[in-house]
Amino acid sequence: MKKILILNGPNLNLQGRRDREIYGTGTFDEYIVELRRRYPDIELELFQSNIEGELIDALHRSEGLYDGVVLNAGGYTHTSVAIRDAIAAVSTPVVEVHISSILSREEFRHTSLIAPVCKGSIMGFGLDSYRLGIEALKG
User: Fold this and answer.
1) Of 23, 31, 76, 130, which residue is the catalytic one?
2) Which residue of the set 78, 98, 110, 130 is catalytic?
3) Rounded to whole angstroms, how far apart are CA atoms 23 and 130?
4) N or C: which end of the chain has fewer CB within 10 A?
C-alpha cells in the first residue's frame, strides 16, 4: 500500500475560516475523510505546522517512510530557502500544491522558491488541488 504525506504549512489550520472567498469554506478535517474514502488503497497522513523547522523535519522523516509528499508550504513557498533545501535533500517526490492560483494574487506570491525542486506544481483548483497532487504521486 502506498503512503502519502499531506504536509500543510502556516495558516492552513484555519482552512474553512480564513479568507473564504479565496480558500473556500471546507475544512481539512472534512476533506481528509473524503480523500481517504476516495483512495482506500493509499494510506494518507495529514500534518500541519505553522513552524518552518517542523515542516523541514517532516520532509526529512518522509524519506523511506512515504512514497510521496503533497506539500502546501503556504507563505513559506515564497520565502523559505530552508524548505527548498530540505525538498532537494530527500529522495521522496514532493508535489507542490496551492488552493488558490499564486500567479493571480499579489506579485510577491508569484515566485515559488520550492517549485524548481518539486516533481510538479498544482494550483488554483481549491481543495481539489490536493486530490490532483495525490493523482500525480500515485501513478
Assistant:
1) 23
2) 98
3) 13
4) C
Task: Tell me the whole-structure pTM to 2 decimals.
Answer: 0.92
Number of domains in the chain: 1
For the record, the C-alpha cell of 138 comes out as 500515485
117 close to 88: Cβ distance less than 8 angstroms: yes
Domain range for residue 88?
A: 2-138
C-alpha cell, 111: 515566485
What sign does the dihedral 82-127-116-91 (CA atoms) show?
Answer: positive
98 catalytic? Reply is yes
CATH no. for residue 32?
3.40.50.9100
Count of C-beta atoms within a 10 Å radius of residue 22: 11
Residue linked to cell 495558516: 11
